[in-house]
Automatic annotation (TrEMBL):
The keyword Transmembrane applies. It holds the Pfam family Glycos_transf_2. GO terms for molecular function: undecaprenyl-phosphate 4-deoxy-4-formamido-L-arabinose transferase activity. GO terms for biological process: lipopolysaccharide biosynthetic process. Keywords: Cell membrane, Glycosyltransferase, Lipopolysaccharide biosynthesis, Membrane, Transferase, Transmembrane, Transmembrane helix. It comes from Eiseniibacteriota bacterium. Residues 10-170 form the Glycosyltransferase 2-like domain. GO terms for cellular component: plasma membrane. It comes from the Bacteria. Coiled coil: none annotated. Gene3D superfamilies: Spore Coat Polysaccharide Biosynthesis Protein SpsA, Chain A. InterPro entries: Glyco_trans_2-like (IPR001173), Glycosyltransferase_2 (IPR050256), Nucleotide-diphossugar_trans (IPR029044). This is Glycosyltransferase family 2 protein.
């Protein structure tokens, strides 16, 4: 991809009980895509919501060209929702964020030039707008993950990433819960993909409720973490994977942090 080429982009976001946010988030995604890309799609992943999220998502898909709604029934958890979005994507690159409106889709523009140099763009939150206990939990989790996988990334779980679809087609994902970001980045490193970092703005949640701090979610993530460590050491992608990243040599990765 050259600096004058607009990438073909799938944009998706998982939603669980986000009836107050899903329309606002979808409209923001469409506005950004129309400005930044010529070939794009927006996918709403309704992850078994019990409120009107699915109904609103279907209405938006019917009204807005380029928007699709897909539904997990029952709820598959955060990792399962991301897996559904990755499986539904049809464009060359896949961007995902959360459906709660805590990021600005317009900031995708700052990520795009980095695709000239890096295979994957994994930003960090410059001013994380979460309660103190969530920030402390995230810090401790990051230390543990780095000790196990040596990723050296500033904010593993920042939900504002771009992956090439060829990478997604190369791997089989294990995680159905909150471990999904760790798994994807660890597999990418093992397969030789280069990872670039850049700061993005994080905004306070204005509606709905967070679910990431749920004790059941946390326990599941820790249980999966150590299993994943063994799985990735044995097989970073899938047994038949032989593709080579476009901008990195196998076994070699590059990472940059941009202020």
């Amino acid at each position: 991809m050259t600096t004058t080429t607009k990438p073909s982009m799938t944009v998706f976001f998982p939603c669980y009980n986000e009836e107050e946010n899903v329309e606002r988030t979808t409209l923001a995604a469409v506005r950004a895509c129309k400005r930044l890309f010529t070939d794009w799609e927006v996918i709403i992943v309704n992850d078994g919501s019990k409120d009107r999220t699915g109904e609103i998502a279907d209405r938006l898909a019917a009204e807005i060209p380029g928007v699709r709604a897909v539904h997990n029934n029952p709820n598959r958890g955060y990792g399962g929702a991301l897996q559904r979005g990755f499986a539904e994507a049809t464009k060359d690159f896949v961007f995902y964020t959360d459906g709660d409106g805590q990021f600005d889709f317009e900031e995708m523009e700052t990520l795009l030039p980095m695709l000239e140099t890096y295979d994957i763009i994994s930003p960090y939150r410059k001013n994380r707008q979460d309660p103190l206990h969530r920030r402390m939990n995230a810090k401790c989790w990051g230390i543990l993950v780095d000790a196990l996988f040596g990723l050296g990334l500033r904010d593993i779980d920042c939900a504002f990433k771009i992956y090439p679809r060829r990478f997604l087609q190369q791997i089989d994902l294990f995680s159905e819960g909150a471990l999904i970001d760790t798994e994807m980045l660890a597999r990418a490193r093992k397969l030789g993909y280069s990872i670039g970092q850049i700061g993005v703005t994080h905004y306070p949640r204005t509606a709905g409720e967070q679910t990431g701090a749920n004790l059941r979610v946390i326990v599941r993530a820790f249980r999966e973490l150590f299993t994943l460590h063994s799985v990735i050491r044995a097989n970073p992608g899938r047994a038949a994977a032989a593709a080579t990243p476009a901008t990195a040599s196998p076994g070699r990765t590059r990472s940059v942090t941009t202020a």
